[in-house]
């Protein structure tokens, strides 16, 4: 659970790939063939997005991150309270063990061992629950970004959008291909419009 913040910084995938199509016609020199290949590859409309910036500035993801952090802290406190309660029982047993019969001591030991096992299972359950929540947020993030880029690329005539961050496969990209600002702005406008839109009244009024 303490690794929640690291997990939340998982980098979103935004249609990663590079397309290069080279057609060479026979009878031309190597220099002419190379020039033709460059012209054809440059004909593709390509742009890139800094996914780290999107994660840091997308209101949807920031909100979800806050919710997950709050939930994680709540679950940690619940686990801590249970663990402290069990520890108090163990301490009481250790203080009073000499005053117990063998049967009583054995029964208490078995009960404490069972409670310890249940506590471990509870901890695993909490971890799985948080992981599922994190995966759900990541899936929603990918879906929202992908859907936005489909519409954005259609309007701008883009054929390919790649992820460009330190450690990615893209080693260089011209700043003129950077659409990160537009993507963040568009995503936030769509999200805020969704959040602030009034809910439709589904109540049917009988005449």
TrEMBL record:
Show the coiled coil region(s): 58-125
- Among the Pfam families in the record, one is OmpH
Q: Which UniProt keywords apply?
A: Coiled coil, Membrane, Signal, Transmembrane, Transmembrane helix
Enumerate the Gene Ontology biological process terms.
Answer: protein stabilization
Keyword Membrane present in the record's keywords: the answer is: yes
Database matches in SMART domains: OmpH
**InterPro entries this protein is in?**
Chaperone_Skp, Skp_dom_sf
Q: Name one GO molecular function term.
A: unfolded protein binding
The superkingdom listed in its UniProt entry is Bacteria
- Entry GO CC: cytosol
Say yes or no: keyword Lipoprotein present.
no
For this protein, the parts annotated as crossing the membrane are: 6-26
**Family assignment from sequence similarity:** Belongs to the Skp family.
Q: Which PANTHER family match?
A: CHAPERONE PROTEIN SKP
Q: Name it.
A: OmpH family outer membrane protein
* Source species of the chain: Fulvivirga sediminis
């Amino acid at each position: 659970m303490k690794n929640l913040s690291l997990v939340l910084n998982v980098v979103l995938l935004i249609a990663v790939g590079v397309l290069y199509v080279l057609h060479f016609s026979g009878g031309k020199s190597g220099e002419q063939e190379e020039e033709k290949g460059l012209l054809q590859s440059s004909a593709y409309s390509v742009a890139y997005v800094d996914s780290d910036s999107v994660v840091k500035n997308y209101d949807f993801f920031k909100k979800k991150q806050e919710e997950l952090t709050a939930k994680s802290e709540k679950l940690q406190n619940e686990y801590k309270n249970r663990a402290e309660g069990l520890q108090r029982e163990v301490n009481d047993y250790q203080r009073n063990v000499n005053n117990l019969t063998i049967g009583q001591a054995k029964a208490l030991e078995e009960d404490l061992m069972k409670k310890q096992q249940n506590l471990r299972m509870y901890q695993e359950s909490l971890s799985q629950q948080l992981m599922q929540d994190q995966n759900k947020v990541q899936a929603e993030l990918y879906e929202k970004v992908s859907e936005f880029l489909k519409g954005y690329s259609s309007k701008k005539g883009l054929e390919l959008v790649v992820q460009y961050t330190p450690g990615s496969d893209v080693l260089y990209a011209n700043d003129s291909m950077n659409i990160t600002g537009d993507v963040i702005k568009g995503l936030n406008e769509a999200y805020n419009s969704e959040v602030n839109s009034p809910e439709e009244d589904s109540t049917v009024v009988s005449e």
